[in-house]
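Worked example 3. Consider a protein that binds magnesium ion.
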Amino acid sequence: MTGKVRVAVVFGGRSTEHAVSCASAGLILGAIDRDRYDVLPIGIATDGRWVLTSGDPARLALSSGVSPSVESVAVPGAEITPRAGGALIVTAPGEVPRDLGEVDVVLPLLHGTYGEDGTIQGLLEMTGTRYAGAGVFASAAGMDKEYMKLVIAARGLPVGRYVVVRDRDWSGGAGGAGGLGERKRVLDEIAELGWPVFVKPARGGSSVGITRVLSAADLEPAVEAARVHDPKVLVEAAVEGMEVECAVLEGLDGGPPEASVPGQVVVDQGSVFYDFQAKYLAAGTTMRIPAPIPAAAAAEVRRLACAAFEAISCEGLARVDFFYTPAGQILFNEINTMPGMTPASGFPLMWAATGLPLPQLIDRIIETALRKRPGPR
Ligand SMILES: Nc1ncnc2c1ncn2[C@@H]1O[C@H](COP(=O)(O)OP(=O)(O)O)[C@@H](O)[C@H]1O
Ligand SMILES: [Mg+2]
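Given these inputs, the predicted complex is written out as structure tokens:
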């Protein structure tokens, strides 16, 4: 017995954000307090296998050269099976399965599908394992941009205009009957949004599959590009203005959530919007913290960020993103229940600027999870 808290940091995963998740793990594994925590770095390969990894932070950085992956840090052949009660069994070829022991808490540093969407949260609930962050419902609600907006708008937060394009609307469903009529109907609805529009997969992240469309002629290829990632697509009226983010943590001892100082995303000059390249690779993309907005607007962003967190019954942590228009209006864009934790990501930077440096931020997220009893939330 070491007396340390055993934390399984789970990263990688099956989504398009595998490399981003590896980069998030790289930052966390490099900063987590090893005197307090016994850390088990577990990767989920792109094919869904769970493997033990070296967790070497230096090999998990995101750069324009090679994308980091679980494969590149995997301990050869060491596959892991999660078992009831938080136990993890590791099997390697030609070896008797070895029990890695129980973990006290899982930190699912996974972004996107099969990670941030409630699926791994469901698996962990079924095995009775404690985990950090949002539960099944909040994760699913935060992942699906259609239901996210419905819940957020129902709570009275300002949301921009959008049209949902379902598979049935686009391809006419399995039978195809009436498909073209449906497609014309959604295309007409979209035209009413005005141009440009943003076309995005409903359940995506890291800007993968998103296109800014300037005219009707370019709409259909953009919908097809989004449909590669998700049969459901959202088309949104473009909002002019600055992108302002706010980091939220679950309150201590059941208290209300707490919001960080908001930050502005300053997108690299070479990018038209905050796309994948601008987010993770472009040197010119930075966070301006605090965001250069009036004090009253910053206070309102913090209030709305906490309201969004509560609207989906979020737990642990989240980053809530807004647009701040030239007229001073604040519009909700999205909530991320497992925000990026790369060195360039807003979540760790905004908390650091609010007085919570990364090692303490990690402590807070783990402590919040440890205080909960396993079971329905
Ligand atoms: N309605 C919109 N108006 C203006 N810009 C948008 C809009 N929707 C998305 N964007 C741009 O695309 C980026 C990614 O969109 P977002 O909805 O946040 O998807 P993701 O979940 O992939 O981050 C935003 O950060 C912003 O730069
Ligand atoms: Mg976003």
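Take a moment to read the result before moving on. Residues 295-311 form the longest helix (17 residues). The mean pLDDT is 92.
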